[in-house]
């Protein structure tokens, strides 16, 4: 008795070709998963460390800061000035003619709540820390902050008014979490 086989065109068995394709796909998929598993620790090591993430933002309780007082906190390795401004300081900051300023910026754009001024306390000239946070510190000619290194004077909104500094003190990104609590960063 003769046995007959069915040959696909071009001498290939249709079922064998499907099996070979499956083996290629399975091998490729296994290789891709293996490569991803091997490279994942390297990619994961590029994420910021836990201590860096912890410094990315900070929360500050404003309750102990009385009107007219200021505190300095450290955020991302820089001093941040938080001042509870008086009504006179707010008025002085808002009554300035913007055309007179080196870096014109209205006070309203620099604060979320008028009584709270939050700024990075680094002089924009050469990176010194200006005076004016403590009682008895020189506050400059405009009642704000004064950098004694080269004589930059900042007003009660942290805007540069006189001296070599080219820009206002930087206002970091911050938001109020409640009436007396802010998150910086």
How would you concisely characterize the structure shown here?
This protein has helices at 14-44, 50-56, 87-94; strands spanning 58-61, 70-75, 78-84, 116-120, 143-147, 152-155, 160-162, 174-178, 181-184. With 185 residues, the chain is an alpha+beta fold.
Describe, in plain words, how this protein is organized in 3D.
The radius of gyration is 32 Å and the shape is elongated. The chain has 185 residues and is α+β, with helices and mostly antiparallel strands. It has helices spanning 14-44, 50-56, 87-94; strands at residues 58-61, 70-75, 78-84, 116-120, 143-147, 152-155, 160-162, 174-178, 181-184. The model has no long low-confidence stretch (mean pLDDT 89). The strands form three sheets. The protein has a three-stranded antiparallel β-sheet with strand order 1-9-8. The longest helix is centred in the first third of the chain and has 31 residues, at 14-44.
Structural class call reads: alpha+beta
Number of helices: 3
Detail the poorly predicted runs.
none
Give Rg in angstroms: 32 Å
State the oligomer: single chain
What's the SSE blueprint?
Elements: H1 14-44, H2 50-56, E1 58-61, E2 70-75, E3 78-84, H3 87-94, E4 116-120, E5 143-147, E6 152-155, E7 160-162, E8 174-178, E9 181-184
Core attributes:
185 residues; alpha+beta; three-stranded antiparallel sheet; 9 strands
